[in-house]
Design goal:
323 residues; 0% strand; Cytochrome Bc1 Complex, Chain D, domain 2; mainly alpha
Length: 323
């Protein structure tokens, strides 16, 4: 059985390579290392979350915690201080070595792309979702937006072909064997979506993650469904919820909240508003049956209370009959 699975995966990766060369290499490069100013690398240690500084960071944190112990022996404290200086020098030397990558957008303190964008689900789901729905708002920071490739979202590829592409991209992962040379070979690193568009404006306070405080604040706010629809697109919500493939479908959202979600004993005592707010700022608190925890968890820090009110006003307009 395992031999069959390996053969099946190998054939899938081979088909994915052909699809990548035909459809993706124009922007991401034949080797998957991206094209400067055009699109990010996928054959990239950052996409797979490899942290080059993890050993240094872990040892420094351990030593710093020990250094703060009250009554620590002076000799041991001196040893710790000396070792911390050595580790800092190692870190500085490494950063100097990878400066070309930093100049291209690599952030050594955010070595994981999934953490960078607040993705709460598995990596294959992140890649699959991106391929299915694209990233239409990426037109704000790339010359061409990431297209939707799945037929379910209006693209040209079947779901099995999307999975072949996912398998091909994941086959680049080297686990713990990524080298500095691999990092320096990347031509273009990814950018953070939302920077410069759709985020909290300077001088405004983010809503935070206190559900009851947000609900109370919303009592004095009138939501704008038109702006809510714009935010729904700009923040990438439509990418997962359109069609109900990755997340529950946008259409009929409010009807399902009132007629289905609130009937779940796990949500006993919730109002529709409380559920909606919690779904935005704590999306993994309750996972709708049939779906997984893939929604980003950063919206409480990216949206104001007014923007959350606008989003909810838009969702309240999605009151089509539940199917």
């Amino acid at each position: 059985m395992r031999s069959f699975e390996r053969q099946f995966l190998a054939r899938s990766i081979e088909r994915g390579g052909q699809l990548f060369a035909a459809n993706c290499s124009e922007c991401h490069g034949l080797d998957g290392r991206g094209l400067t100013g055009a699109a990010p690398a996928l054959n990239n240690p950052q996409l797979f979350g490899h942290d080059y500084l993890a050993p240094i960071r872990a040892e420094m944190e351990q030593l710093q915690a020990e250094r703060e112990i009250e009554g620590l022996d002076e000799a041991r404290a001196a040893e710790i201080d000396a070792r911390l200086q050595e580790l800092q020098a190692e870190r500085d030397a490494f950063l100097a070595q990878i400066q070309p990558a930093i100049d291209k957008g690599y952030d050594p303190d955010q070595p994981s792309r999934l953490q960078q964008v607040g993705w709460g689900g598995p990596q294959d789901a992140f890649i699959y979702t991106t391929l299915v729905h694209g990233r239409p708002t990426s037109i704000s920071y790339w010359p061409r937006p990431m297209a939707a490739w799945s037929q379910t979202a209006g693209g040209p590829l079947r779901n099995d072909q999307i999975q072949d592409l996912v398998n091909y991209i994941q086959n680049w992962d080297k686990g713990d064997n990524w080298t500095v040379e691999d990092l320096l070979a990347v031509n273009q690193f990814a950018k953070v979506p939302g920077e410069g568009g759709g985020a909290v404006a300077e001088g405004e306070e983010p809503a935070g993650d206190d559900v009851q405080a947000i609900v109370a604040a919303l009592e004095n706010i009138t939501g704008d469904p038109v702006n809510g629809q714009s935010l729904y697109s700009a923040q990438g919500c439509a990418g997962c919820h359109a069609g109900g493939i990755v997340g529950p479908a946008t259409e009929g959202t409010w009807t399902r909240i009132e007629e289905e979600r609130l009937q779940d004993p796990a949500l006993a005592g919730y109002t529709a508003l409380e559920y909606a707010v919690e779904s935005i700022v704590h999306p993994n608190q309750y996972i709708v049956p049939g779906f997984s925890a893939t929604m980003p968890t950063y919206f409480g820090e990216r949206l104001t209370v007014q923007q959350i009110g606008d989003l909810i006003a838009y969702l309240q307009s999605q009151d089509q009959p539940a199917e």
